[in-house]
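Entry 14: structure prediction run for Rab5 GDP/GTP exchange factor. Input pasted below.
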Amino acid sequence: PFFSLNRKKMNLKSERRGIHVDQSELLCKKGCGYYGNPAWQGFCSKCWREEYHKARQKQIQEDWELAERLQREEEEAYASSQSTQGAQSLTFSKFEEKKTNEKTRKVTTVKKFFTASSRAGTKKAEIQEAKAPSPSINRQASIETDRVSKEFIEFLKTYHKPGQDIYKQCKLFLDTMNHKRDLSIEEQSECAQDFYQNVADKLQTRWKVPPEKVEKAMDQIEKYIMTRQYKYVFCPETTDDEKKDLAVQKRIRALHWVTPQMLCVPVNEEIPEVSDMVVKAITDIIEMDSKRVPRDKLACITKCSKHIFNAIKITKNEPASADDFLPTLIYIVLKGNPPRLQSNIQYITRFCNPSRLMTGEDGYYFTNLCCAVAFIEKLDAQSLNLSQEDFDRFMTGQTSPKKQESDSFSPDVCLGVKQMCKSLDLLSQLNERQERIVSEAKKLEKDLIDWTDGITKEVEDIVEKYPLEIKPKSQALAAIDSENVENDKLPPPLQPQVYAG
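Run finished. Output tokens:
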């Protein structure tokens, strides 16, 4: 090494000056035979790199073991707290009692809050008590957070060294976000999107992870981070998300009278299979609010959309198109009235992995849901092919399409007669449709006959203008190597000659 050569030169100079230098003090501490460097604690360059690499690996392993130990301690602490509280499940009566106590506590807290008090410390404690969440909510969040953390650590073990770096990056990001609570939700969203992009780039460039494993890793990272950040970034108080939720819910309640025929929905709910698909679609879109991870919320939207496509396919006996899907999705949203719809949409937009929103079926179905909500907010009489008077009467509740339909029957008519009348109306509509199809078919047949006659006349005119002359077949020429039967003065074919050698 370079420093070893310098040490040799230094020894030669020292000997010339009459100074004795002990060679053993200059050698590498590891005994490799090279000279060491005091700046590297007496090791040579090669041995110093080895020692540094070992120390680094040891530190990484200790950090990893420390994280696992802390995770186990959290699980043991939670298990011990659960055991002290008892393992008996709450019955319905206990749940009602707990709910009543919780409501009484909140009312008492509010009364105390508005009561004049001379002690500032008491008022501050009351405000903190009023803002404190329910213990059951904290316990449920803790269970899910611990489970997700354990699954995340187990998942990263398959990535070995990149998994350790990913875990450190996620912990650092969570600590940074905890210190940035004062930022606006848009700024926190930008931080999350930048973090997703940086981790994805490192997985692809630095750690050389295959694309399919990168996608799985990003899903797990999003799940781990957003599970911990959910209560801080979902519908925060600094935004008007809750106000928009109430406005959308009020709008959907006012449009309860909208029927599938008004939206041109190609779904027949009288078919049992179709009715089951509609119920499943409504269940999935409502279940979206119970999820905490943006990817899980998108999965609920995707399952709802697939049930809609199946319902349309069963009704029409053919694959559904985009023109059929969007009106049906609007009808499902109106019928289900999902809770906190705007908050869920904003949460997915702000904190979902951007690659999932920009590509794939999840992004397509989420875009359609946003379009459906925008259509509902701007729904008017023209959108439903109604007059403004009827639309206003339906919106104010003076009448409804279902009431007008029921008014055509007397109150003492049995249900079977009503069903028979509906069937007769349906048969009359089918008869009109069949007659219209027959008339169109006859028209098409006449058009085909006219087209055939026209083509035949054009061909006859062309043949008459340019008659076809068929010339007699010309006499075939004799082959060169055939017998000279025509006396065309050609020499006979050459015959092979045998020469005796």
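Notes: The longest helix spans residues 415-465. Will compare against the previous run tomorrow.
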